[in-house]
Amino acid sequence: MTTAHAWLPTSPCATSCVDDGPSRVGVVRTGVRLVGLAALVTAFPALQLIPGRGRRVGAQRRLARAGLRRCGIELRLIDARDASSPGPVFAAPDTGVLVIAAHVGWTDVLVLAAVQPIGFVARADLVDWPVLGRLARAARVVPVDRSDLRRLPTAVAQVTDLLRRGEPMAVFPEGTTWCGRASGRLRPAFFQAAVDAAVPVQPIRLRYLDPAGAVATTAGFVGTESFAGSLLRLARSSGLTAEVVLLPTLTPDRHRRELARAGQRAVHGTMASSAKRRLVPA
């Protein structure tokens, strides 16, 4: 049996932080969306059998975007990197990169996969969840039990190995979810994987916005809420936009704590007005 420790990330956000969304759809449309999500989850493992990496990646990206739409979420992708960036993706094919982002809820996984199919560091019990568990078992998921520090080095080593093999991997260094209006400190542990594999860190600024451009907490999965409750709220919602800003990459030639601090400034800071922003059609 594991016990809590000082390193265990916690969030003060509760279900009272979460709103119902800018607008809601009717019962019939909600039901259609839920059936559609179930069909997408069932189809996902079959995508692994599509011949050709490019075709397989394209199909996975389209499926993730379809999943977002069934959660009432549209994708807005902004590239704020320089002209040498690989395009509207995290990295070129067969290129390892550690993607970091704030963590709001389970839809974060769909949002990042809608940009480029990617492996994830996720809570160890995710494989047992309804819906998402099936996706996790079919994807490149590295499980981590944050209540047990003894297992952390093994998870970091797994991520390092995948990065060295040219796999893009995503981690949410806050270690737990926040509502979207509040945020936590980025923990340095998994930045060590980028240092050891000598791959860049790709910071992502991820926000869920209402039609007026204000931060919405509808996608927040916090407190004691069940997955079923969160799924139903999103299936009923409409008018949300997941805004993903691809920020300049961080080089791994520094200590993991320095990388974590630089990542904190990037993910939660204010973008410089001189940064070049290119809206990429989603």
- What CATH calls the topology is Cobalt-precorrin-4 Transmethylase, domain 1
Q: How far do the termini sit from each other?
A: 45 Å
What's the name of the CATH homologous superfamily?
A: Tetrapyrrole methylase, N-terminal domain
Placed side by side, the strands forming the largest sheet appear as 5-4-6-3-7-9-2-10
What percent of residues are in strands?
Answer: 15-25%
Largest β sheet strand count, sense and barrel closure: 8 strands, mixed
Mean pLDDT: 87
Poorly predicted sequence stretches spanning 5 or more consecutive residues: 271-275
Number of DSSP strand runs: 10
Specify the helix fraction band: 25-40%
SSE pattern, N- to C-terminal: EHHEEHEHEHEHEHEEHE
Radius of gyration: 18 Å
Structure overview:
Pathway: Lipid metabolism. The protein has one domain: Cobalt-precorrin-4 Transmethylase, domain 1 (3-Layer(aba) Sandwich). It is 34% helix and 17% strand. The chain contains eight helices and ten strands. It has helices at 27-47, 53-69, 107-115, 132-138, 152-164, 191-197, 227-236, 256-268; strands at 23-24, 73-79, 97-101, 119-123, 141-144, 168-171, 201-209, 237-238, 240-246, 278-280. The strands form two sheets. The chain has an eight-stranded mixed sheet with strand order 5-4-6-3-7-9-2-10, with helices on both faces. The model is unreliable at 271-275 (pLDDT under 50).
Task: Using brief descriptors, characterize the structure shown.
globular, alpha/beta, 282 residues, lipid biosynthesis, Cobalt-precorrin-4 Transmethylase, domain 1, two-stranded antiparallel sheet, 8-stranded mixed sheet, 8 helices
